[in-house]
Amino acid sequence: MATNTEKKSNGLALVPFVLLVVLYLCGFPMVTAILVSCVVTFFFGRAKIGEKFSVFAKGAGDEGVLIMLMIFALSGAFSSVATSMGGRDAVVNLGLSLVPPQFLIAGCFVIAMLMSTACGTSMGTIAAITPIAVGVAQKGGLDMLLLLGAVVGGAMFGDNLSFISDTTIAAARGQNVEMRDKFRLNFLIALPAALITLVLLCIFGQPETVVPLEGLSYSLIKVVPYVVVLVMALVGMDVMLVMASGIVVAFLIGIFTGSFTPVDFANSVWTGITDMDQSFYSSLLIAGMAKLVEEAGGIEWLVTNMRKVMKSNKSAQLGIIGLVGLTDAAIANNTVAIIVANPIAKDVSREYNIDPRRTASLLDLFSCVVQGIVPHGGQTLLACTLAASYGVTATPIDVIPFLWYCFLMGVFGLISVFVPFSDGATHKDPWNWEYDCAESKVEEKKAVLEHLSTEA
């Protein structure tokens, strides 16, 4: 296998990625922009079209990519089925019924955190909570911008941590690590940010008048599928088994409560799978495109130039943060940003001895940080659009200063680079070689570990 110094380096091979960003900013649908960029990728290099397509198919058909696509499909199906049988509304109403009215904004933040973690979708969380919260907030004289910032921030909490979030799936599978390991590292960063945000919201989010919440009906049994998925994932069961189990539990509860018929269930499954089509096609096409770019020398050129500013493990981590953050700021899609950054981040991690669990954590964390605070991100746009339907005039620019959780998450993420409380490293396994699929590194790392044990 060729070493990094023997690989060809060609900066022009990165043009398709640049084109992808330009097309998206010009208003192209995401999948269309990726497809056009893929076509352009075939014009680089001297190999025949058939050979290039073989390379493309090798990247798109990678085992990790196919597993990720299956997880996307199962996650979408679970979310749709659980929502159809009333689970999403039950989670929202249960949470609101437990919140003291004087702490409504802080409560909406917590509810958004819990719901997004259970459902795996920040957009779905915002869509479910915002109308209810805005309606109550108008009666209670709450700070509307602070409320919207709390809902969006709580939604990004789960977007980053949920086992069924597409960002978690993309980051973990892209770096070949277990999702529960990435969760643990992210949680150490997200928890202090969430606690500080909660305290600030309790202090500054008090309403002028206390308005009791009424008419919040819910059924505890309809919350069960989310609990089952969360518990099974936390104990380390295979994610596809977790998703399949969640779907079965939601189906049984839906039939038992008369929420839907078997035909309705089948339609919900199909709807959930098709709702994931953008993530599905984006992952497939970008994986193939990335393989072509790699073969043409684009990845090697980028890594080589990144090394000029990366002098250590810490500066390499900052490079990964900058890479995924800038990509997300350009295309405003944190899942796609992670998919684009994955191959580059993996090479950088190997070069600078960054635990792949830590790399996955950084990719997911900072893609969500940037996604939450950019004014053209779907989350803030959706929250403002829903608020406008209630006569509330607010723009994403207005909401950005109140996205306290997103900013604090970014701060704690940067602190973790220099104060490694969330680096994933272990004393006995300094290189964590069982997580690295590079065959050329395995024997080398085994030798290092044997030497360390001999020294001990």
SSE topology:
Layout: H1 15-25, H2 30-41, H3 49-60, H4 63-84, H5 87-97, H6 104-119, H7 122-140, H8 144-161, H9 166-174, H10 179-204, H11 224-234, H12 239-256, H13 262-275, H14 277-295, H15 298-307, H16 313-331, H17 334-351, H18 356-373, H19 378-388, H20 396-399, H21 404-418, H22 439-455
Helix pairs in contact: 1-2, 2-14, 3-14, 4-9, 4-12, 4-13, 4-14, 5-6, 6-7, 6-8, 6-10, 7-8, 7-19, 8-10, 8-18, 8-19, 9-17, 9-18, 10-18, 10-21, 11-12, 14-17, 15-17, 16-17, 16-18, 17-18, 18-21
Key terms:
single chain, 456 residues, mainly alpha, 22 helices, 72% helix, globular, disordered N terminus, disordered C terminus
